[in-house]
Design brief:
The protein is α/β, with parallel strands linked by helices. The chain folds into five domains: 2-68, Winged helix-like DNA-binding domain superfamily/Winged helix DNA-binding domain (Arc Repressor Mutant, subunit A, Orthogonal Bundle), CATH 1.10.10; 87-224, 3-Layer(aba) Sandwich (Rossmann fold); 249-327, no CATH class; 339-413, Winged helix-like DNA-binding domain superfamily/Winged helix DNA-binding domain (Arc Repressor Mutant, subunit A); 414-568. It is built from 27 helices and seven strands. The protein has helices spanning 2-6, 9-19, 24-31, 35-48, 54-68, 87-99, 113-124, 146-154, 164-171, 188-201, 249-260, 270-279, 284-292, 294-305, 309-312, 326-335, 339-347, 357-364, 368-380, 399-412, 415-433, 440-458, 465-481, 485-498, 502-518, 522-535, 559-562; strands spanning 102-106, 132-136, 178-182, 206-211, 221-224, 385-389, 392-396. The chain is elongated and about 115 Å long.
Length: 568
């Protein structure tokens, strides 16, 4: 109280600006007084407050300011809809932020990084005595302007003789505050340089970044933001608690957003909601956009529309164009890539299962080294997920990204050639799977969906008919060895339909009949046997059905099974 009485109003103004780390010249310019007058006031303040130097004076000014003002309210955007679930993610990210000074919440567009970061910042607000500040970097197009965006969010102006980064650092030098820098992926280099300077100059500052790509700096700690949780396998959307959401944040989000449209869901429909959420890979933006279509499409309409999800997953007016649709979110990421990485992204979209870098090199036709580097960059941009296994690193694209890549392939006129290379790659894999191996079952299970997808594409294209026939026959033999007997019969019948000669047709139908006999499906065995006999009647015109077959007919067994090499 006495200290405040001894300090004049002008000295109080000077003291506040010293606390903001302005130089004497800057203080003079701000208060329209001479530098000599500022020096006199500073000397007086040093004497009255009994502090030894200007640094101590600045600390005393900050202490006075902190005592005089109330704790600032967090400068965070107001949530217009409830934040659903993610209790584990909130706790984990909060713990990381307590331990590390700069944490990056990393994930693909639409996974929910911003909302998670805002929830964590709100939870942590009480721990930061000098405030929590949110900075949206989407409007920033020049990496050198990151500091300016932060200064504007803090309400700071440019200080004479200092650039914006220095001005921000000076203002936050002794502050205990949290900065949330949202959407850094397009200004990564500028954000990294700014944060390196800021964290070195401001020891009590913490920074939470959201981005689709890492900053790639030593002081960064990364938290990969997962998709929303889905119901456990085999759970039709119900759980023991009776909530009907299977403990799934994805299902809860869909139900909340659909209900907000005035169309509550019956608990019996929650299983169908779970299937929709699973097809959307638990991506928050996609689920919200799908739920918004529920009043007009219903669940059956949404399920049907997911055959082309990018057409259906659109919304109305949003604050940011890139969140109006899943396609817009993917366009934002796509436009940040260089041309070579764009080409790689669209071509690897033909893979329906996790793939390796050598597989991608074969299918794309690109140089193996450049493919490996490109896949790493796409993973760093959160456009591919990475899994590690004993047989090597594998990459996977989410379903919506695969659809996006297919559209881009069509636009580039590359779809047919890329699919054809993928078909050839699948034929080579099927030949490799025909060889005995101790890990045959696991190798087949990894490749099976890829072979099926290639066959589904090729069977309707006349120019690929011969290759489709070869792949159908190979898949029939492999499925039989894997004891997928029903599929084996289906593939033999498919191979028969794709055969070029009556003899090949007859052979495939006879194999299909033998497999039907193994399944004890007598009607199918009789139908297929007669079809095989009719397709290529022997000399003399006999069309009698083949003799009765018992168990596994030798003609139906692939070579490896007949030789005892089958995986059981």
């Amino acid at each position: 109280m006495g200290e405040a009485a001894n300090i004049s109003p002008r000295e109080a103004e000077v003291l506040e600006l010293v606390g903001d780390h302005l130089s004497n010249a800057e203080i003079g310019a701000r208060l329209y007084i001479s530098v000599r007058t500022v020096e006199t006031h500073v000397s007086s303040l040093l004497r009255k407050l009994e502090v030894p130097d200007r640094r101590a004076l600045a600390r005393r000014a900050s202490d006075r300011t902190r005592t005089d003002r109330r704790r600032p309210a967090p400068a965070l955007p107001i949530r217009l809809t409830p934040f659903i679930g993610r209790a584990g993610e909130r706790a984990a990210l909060t713990a990381m932020l307590e331990e590390h000074r700069q944490v990056t919440a990393l994930g693909p567009g639409g996974v929910g990084k911003t909302r998670l970061a805002l929830a964590v910042a709100s939870d942590a607000a009480d721990a930061f005595t000098d405030g929590v500040w949110f900075v949206d970097l989407v409007p920033v197009t020049d990496p050198a302007m990151v500091a300016t965006a932060v200064a504007e969010a803090l309400g700071l102006g440019e200080q004479l003789g200092h650039d914006m980064a220095e001005s921000v650092a000076a203002a936050l030098a002794d502050r205990h505050a949290l900065l949330v820098l949202d959407n850094c992926e397009h200004v990564v280099d500028g954000a990294a340089l700014f944060l390196e300077h800021l964290l070195a100059a401001c020891p009590r500052i913490r920074v939470l970044v959201t981005s689709r790509s890492r900053l790639m700096v030593p002081f960064e700690r990364v938290y990969p933001v997962p998709a929303l949780s889905l119901p456990p396998a085999g759970d039709a959307g119900g759980d023991a608690s009776g909530s009907g959401d299977g403990g799934s944040d994805a299902v809860r989000l869909f139900i909340d957003r659909a209900t907000s449209m005035g169309r509550p869901l019956d608990p019996a429909q929650h299983g169908q909601v779970a299937e929709i959420c699973e097809r959307l890979d638990g991506m928050a933006l996609a689920i919200e956009l799908a739920a918004a279509r529920y009043p007009t499409l219903g669940l059956d309409g949404i399920t049907a529309a997911l055959a082309h999800p990018l057409r259906m997953l659109t919304g109305g007016s949003r604050a940011q164009d890139r969140h109006r649709s899943v396609r817009a979110a993917l366009d934002w990421s796509h436009d940040l890539l260089d041309p070579a990485d764009r080409a790689l992204l669209r071509q690897v979209s033909v893979f329906v299962t996790p793939f390796t870098a050598p597989a991608a090199a074969e299918v794309t036709g690109f140089d193996a080294a450049s493919v490996a580097d490109g896949l790493a960059r796409l993973a760093e941009q959160s456009l591919l997920a990475v899994t590690f296994s004993p047989d090597g690193t594998r990459y996977r694209a989410l379903e919506t990204l695969r659809q996006y890549g297919a559209d881009r392939l069509t636009e580039a006129g590359e779809l047919h050639d890329t699919r054809a290379r993928h078909l050839n790659w699948c034929l080579a894999r099927s030949a490799e799977l025909g060889l005995p191996a101790t890990d045959w079952r696991a190798r087949f299970d990894r490749a099976a969906d890829e072979l099926r997808a290639a066959l589904a594409w090729a069977e309707h294209r006349p120019e690929q008919r011969a290759d489709a026939h070869r792949l159908a026959r190979a898949l029939a033999e492999l499925a039989f060895t894997r004891h997928l007997i029903a599929e084996s019969q289906q593939r033999y019948e498919q191979a028969a339909a794709l055969a070029d000669t009556p003899a090949d047709t007859a052979a495939m139908l006879r194999h299909a009949a033998a497999v039907a006999a193994c399944r004890l499906h007598g009607d199918d065995m009789h139908r297929l046997g007669r079809g095989g006999a009719g397709a290529a009647p022997p000399p003399g015109g006999c069309t009698a059905a083949p003799p009765r077959q018992r168990g596994r007919a030798p003609g139906a067994l692939p070579r490896r099974e007949r030789e005892g090499g089958g995986a059981r």
